[in-house]
Amino acid sequence: MNETKYGAWPNSWEALAKYVNELESQAHDYNSIAESLSKATVAMFNYFACKHGMTGFQASWAGLNFLRTTREIEGPFGIIDGSKLLYPQYDIHSDISKWIEEWKPELGKIAKKKLEEDNMYAHPNVIKRWQELSKYAPVDETD
Q: For site-directed labelling of 35, which of 77, 97, 122, 123 has its Cα 20 to 30 A away?
């Protein structure tokens, strides 16, 4: 098994099981248990991706879908690499503005659906935001 600063790369089910068992059998505190879960998850991810010959795109999609699922994200999202601020060729502000524009149709659909639901407990400012965003919802051609 190969280990780098980016995680473990087990080359067999047995190596993965041994690695996870070692992580699990250690004494843990509040922080170390979270670190061990992260290490075990990355090892499984790497093992599975390599075993099935996944492309970088497939693995990236799976990683993002993992984040979406575990964080219960229902709308569009992105990841900001703050280290790009170290280099002048990157413009994070522009990237975020572009994402917001790209996300508006999806956010519009979500907002429109929320406006159609019972929202008697939503704050008036939230309702106003939903109304603003709902105008970006694509027109459903089946209506």
A: 77
